[in-house]
Amino acid sequence: MFSKTCEYALRALIYIAQQSKNGDRIGIKDISKGIGSPEYFIAKILQDLSRKGFVHSVKGPNGGFYMDNKNLDLTIADIVREIDGDKLFSGCGLGLEQCSETHPCPIHDQFKNIRNNIREMLEQSKIQMFVDNLDLQLTYLKR
Questions:
Q1: Best exposed site among 7, 12, 18, 109 by fewest CB in 10 Å?
Q2: What dihedral angle (degrees, nearest 10) is formed by the CA atoms of 31, 36, 41, 44?
Q3: Name one GO molecular function term (predicted).
């Protein structure tokens, strides 16, 4: 459903939020290991997200990535839109460019409902919620 870049970004941001809640900064090596992603790939993703304000970073020996309260209020939909665009929330289920209410594809009506449910779920899902569930060991990021 999400691109690999988006999957890694979501996992990394949730991991950083959980690990930095006590003021700690997390380095790329720890993030990569913590979410099971290639180090180089996650570094590029986080560099871009840092420039855009989705996560903060500090350089130097005590540096690393961290999130503040504003970042914890981000929704999964915010992150998906930034990385993968709006296609998940508005695109055709068959990938047709001309699919619309007046020119529907064969699965238009059913897919529109699914798409709206996914959008609603992701817009209601905030980073803080995932951190809380990880802390309660209701969910996990890596086995």
A1: 109
A2: -20
A3: DNA-binding transcription factor activity
